[in-house]
Amino acid sequence: MDSTTTTGWFEGFSEAVRAKAEALCGRDGVFDARRAGRALRACCEGGDRPAYPVEVTLSDDGARVLRARCGCAAGATGRCKHAAAVLMTWAARPWAFHDASGVGASLRRRSTESLASLVEEMVALAPWLERVAMPVAHSGERARSAMRRHGTAWGAAGAITWELSVLKARGEALLRAGDLRGATEVFRGLGEGVLEGYAAVAGQDGDGALRALAVDAARGLTTALARANDRDLRREALTALWSVAQGDLACSDVGAAEEIPEAILRYADEAERAMVAGWIFERAAREGFAANDPLAWSSMPFGALLFELLRDGLDLDEVLRGLKALGRHVELVDAMLLHGRRDEAVAAAWECPTGALPAVAGLLARWGVGADLDAAVRARLERDPSEALFTWWGMRCRARGDLAAARVTAEEMVGMYPSGHRWEALREETPEAERAALQSRVVAALAARGGRRPEAVRVLLAMGELDAAEACTRGEPTVASAAHPVVSGARLSVAEAAAEKRPSVAMAIWSAHVEALVATGDRARYREAAGFIRRMQGLGVEESKAWVAWARETHPRRRALRVELTA
Fold first, then answer.
1. pLDDT grade for 183, boundaries at 50, 70 and 90
2. Rg of the chain's alpha carbons, rounded to an integer?
3. Does residue 376 sit in the same domain as residue 485?
């Protein structure tokens, strides 16, 4: 492994971390260095704490860091000063790393008595290694011990992840060796242990390394289930998966159970599916759910899984009720069309969320009832004129080549959900001879609805409709404080647009704004008011000359105001 190729090693390490690592190397803070293949291992000084174990794995050519981890608080990410210091030491003094590549072969050549003696010596040096030698049946105890022993102080999550990664590796080794029962014990203990104690250190698990151990435990159990042929072993694997799934639910959904329903549906046989369904029924009964009612499946734990487990044995009406309760709208419409329930399918499509409409529309088109959906959506727009539904309907009109309907929809959208982009797009696709009439209709729609006022004002100003924009903002101040309303940003935009051609309009708006700013009694607001007074003086309007005198005479005791006016 080349120690001279350092380009790319320190990507992800901040300048501050690299500086601390250099200081650590400078005081010879990296010691007990070993290398085994592509892995570099060492200990790093931890100040007044015990030394931190560090492991860095490089690529075959030594050009990249594949993995890095450390026992410190930031070590789970592999981007701490200790990991950087190990890399710096390897680059500068590769001879300081003892070659540990042959340790495995050396151990295999030893007698049983010699190995036992060596293990006893290791445990004497590091008592926590006793837990590594525990039988696989004690894996849960080992995981729970790690979660409790490291406490909840900052850095605990990294230390727990480091220790339990060894347990995960043990489970993976058992899988490779074909010991499915042992792997099941290990992964069950790992998953349950992490989930039981995760809430206490969740705030430290920023990169999700500890959470990922629970997910990997569920995947390990899935692999054991998929490979097992023994009936009792399969039951153990399913029981372990169910236990991890419930632990995940109790832990506010860490994510360990996300793939478990799919694993059960894929690998469980008919009898095992019935067994899992029974477990779900039992839990539902304890929590007061009517698990035999498809309408309850959307709210009960594992309701979606129960539906899939029972689906083949349900009649059509129960299946449809279950799909509706679970919010599976596309499948619902598909099932209705498949069984000739055309009118019900259109009604279901009319009620489905906007996000499901593209897929539902595709289904209805394939079954030759797309026109019915179009009529239903138009009726729905009258009841629920949401922006998302309008957008989808406009795309639908274009897709079927009805450009006139698409323009009508775009015009309605500009009136209800104005934006400069929508207006420009609509104007561009409208024939020039019709643009004046279009603008009049849109102005009237914006004035009538008055919603989304700032966006409406921007569109009106883009049209050059200054009077309409001013009317749209009239009487609509925002509030700077409970006592002092300040002119809205939209109204100030109107003043900006009016300053050159309609200075009297700008003068009226800025005057109201200045009065409100001065009334706040705030120095920063005085500075802002003085700026607007100077702008009014630049308009050339006769009334503007009196504003400085007004401010001084009306508020003679506000020295800060006088200072800002003369600045």
1. very high
2. 35
3. no
